[in-house]
Amino acid sequence: GKKLGYTFNHGNLHNVSLGQGQEVVAEGALDVAAQEGHWVILQNIHLVAKWLSSLEKKLEQHSQGSHGDFRVFVSAEPAPCPESHIIPQGILENSIKITSEAPTGIHANLHKALDNFSQDTLEMCSQEKEFRSILFTLCYFHAVVAERRKFGPQGWNRSYPFSTGDLTISVNVLYNYLEASSKVPYDDLRYLVGEIMYGGHITDDWDRRLCRTYLEEFIKPEMMEGELCLAPGFPLPGNMDYNGYHQYIDDALPPESPYLYGLHPNAEIGFLTQRSERLLRTVLELQPRDSSTGPGAVGSQEEMVQALLEEMLEKLTDEFNMAELMAKVEERTPYAVVALQECERMNVLTAEIRRSLAELELGLK
């Protein structure tokens, strides 16, 4: 946006974080932007499921006759399961989609953690050597706790939403402490990071103990003496510049293995088994469902469904004629009332069965 002249200061970039009743604000921003050729950012659209159909209509309405520079950017979290997919198909089909895949493996996670900072960050503290060493250690700690999730209960008893925000806040706290004190307050830093910044997410006592143990191993006086290894075969680097740290990760980090997390190699068996099963299940689901190869075969899945469908439609009884039944009832005893209610319900059910079977038949055709 900045490169093309769209900023908040120019008044031509509108940013709306949805949820908490911001839908009206979003609609107003879209109307103005469509006329003036502004950009609109709608964040977290997954939080407003009921409003999404209105958004779809609004976008359709503005797709014609709007200013040529009008653009809409939307963001959403991935749905945890297929049933939770709430974004209308129209929005998905008409969008250019970009997904942000979480990195896998300690190598990618460590690079990503370091990407949150820059050369300027490394130079901002007066105690430069201490600040750089502990910052790199925190990046490694963040990569380990984030990627440990893949080992399931062997990694963490429960899954926690550790984010880059926890890392950047921890680095800010580190900077403030080092600026205020000539000595490195190791105990204070371990407590703040392990019990508050990251520990704030942790609800299990054993997981909290694990987090504390990591920090006791990583953040201690030996780190300044060049004697600390973050993992077997991976010593803590000395005082380097920003690009030097990235290069050091590429050159010195051992290949991916449970040892990098302080785990036994057997921890990987369960994780790899799960991944293999998921891959094979997906491959099987992609296979064509046709069993009509051998002699006496029953035909494809579609033919079987068609045969069942026709059989059900034949068996399906006609709906009760409620007017006739009502006329026959002389005295509305409790039994008669319940019987009539059940007949009405049965009619609704029969109509739904007939409608859905007819729809399925059309689908097969």
List keywords for this structure.
two-stranded antiparallel ribbon; mainly alpha; 3-stranded parallel sheet; Helicase, Ruva Protein, domain 3; DHC; dynein light intermediate chain binding; 14 helices; 53% helix; 3 domains; 365 residues; Rossmann fold; Dynein_heavy_D6_P-loop; DYH9 protein
Radius of gyration, in Å, reads 31 Å
The residue fraction in helices comes out at: 40-55%
Average pLDDT, rounded to a whole number, is 87
Q: Please name the fourth-level CATH homologous superfamily of the largest domain.
A: Region D6 of dynein motor
Which structural class best describes the helix and strand composition?
mainly alpha
Number of strands: 5
Strand percent estimate = 5-15%
Distance linking N and C termini: 49 Å
Corresponding CATH architecture of the largest domain: Orthogonal Bundle
**In this structure, how is the largest beta sheet organized?**
3 strands, parallel
What is the third-level CATH name, the topology of the largest domain? Helicase, Ruva Protein, domain 3
> What is the count of DSSP helices, taking H or I runs of 4+ residues?
14
Order of helices and strands: EHEHEHHHHHHHEEHHHHH
Q: Please list the strands of the largest sheet in the order they lie side by side.
A: 1-2-3
Number of domains: 3
* Coarse shape: elongated
- Which segments are poorly predicted (pLDDT under 50) over 5 or more consecutive residues? none
Q: Provide the CATH top-level class of the largest domain.
A: Mainly Alpha
Structure explained in plain terms:
This is DYH9 protein. Residues 10-99 form the Dynein heavy chain region D6 P-loop domain. The chain has 3 domains: 2-94, 3-Layer(aba) Sandwich (Rossmann fold); 106-266, Helicase, Ruva Protein, domain 3, CATH 1.10.8.720; 300-364. It is built from 14 helices and 5 strands. It has helices spanning 23-36, 52-62, 89-94, 105-114, 119-123, 128-147, 164-180, 186-197, 205-218, 242-252, 267-286, 301-315, 322-328, 334-364, and strands spanning 13-17, 39-43, 71-74, 229-231, 234-235. The strands form 2 sheets. Strands 1-2-3 form a 3-stranded parallel β-sheet, with helices on one face. The protein is elongated and about 95 Å long. The model has no long low-confidence stretch (mean pLDDT 87).
